[in-house]
Amino acid sequence: MTGPAPVAGRGRSDAAMDPVINPHIPTSEVLRGLLAEAPADCVSFGWLLDKLHKRSFGIVLLLLALIGLAPGTSPVVGLLLTIPAIQMILARASPAFPRIIASRRFSTQRLVRLVDRAVPVLRPMETVIRPRWKTPFDATTRVVGLVVLALTSVFFVPIPLSNIVPAVTIMLIALAYLEEDGVLLALSLAAAAAVLFVATFTIWQSVEAVRFMAS
């Protein structure tokens, strides 16, 4: 994923005197920074999106997928994931949720618990995951949105624990997108293709079994 183009007309000496522009900040540090800025009592989903800026798509996918690991959350999380996924396909600058969702307030302690669950998992992974094999940002955003949208369908499969594999896959995709790691992204997309193949085959087998029993 490529960064901004250099400003025309600036000499080498000027560039050398400048500090590093927009250094890459690990996702775990971004999440910790959210807690430092969060109000003491409660926050809204809209506040969260405003604070994340360009990281909003990736972190929203990551947090929703993390929530999606919990039993009984599959339909709600699957539905919520379709919103940023479609907007990524449309190359929107940041996710926009309906007002009834964006204005939803929840206690800051819930955000703290969610971040406390995510950070210990992210930090060891960030020692290995790093920016490499950079890909065009717009194209990557559209591809990630398309794959996540396809994976959301698995959340509605009425099979116990069927939410875990797509949720973990979306977490890996989101992390690769956030950390600009093309290697992890390629592996995650391959895993997504395998998940979709197995889910499609399982559904087809179930339908065939029902048809056989009904005949």
From TrEMBL:
Annotated transmembrane regions: 57-83, 144-177, 183-204
Pfam families referenced in this protein's UniProt entry, alphabetically: ExoD
Domain of life, per lineage: Bacteria
Keywords recorded for this protein, A-Z: Membrane, Transmembrane, Transmembrane helix
Keyword Membrane: yes
UniProt name for this protein: Exopolysaccharide biosynthesis protein
UniProt organism field: Azospirillum palustre
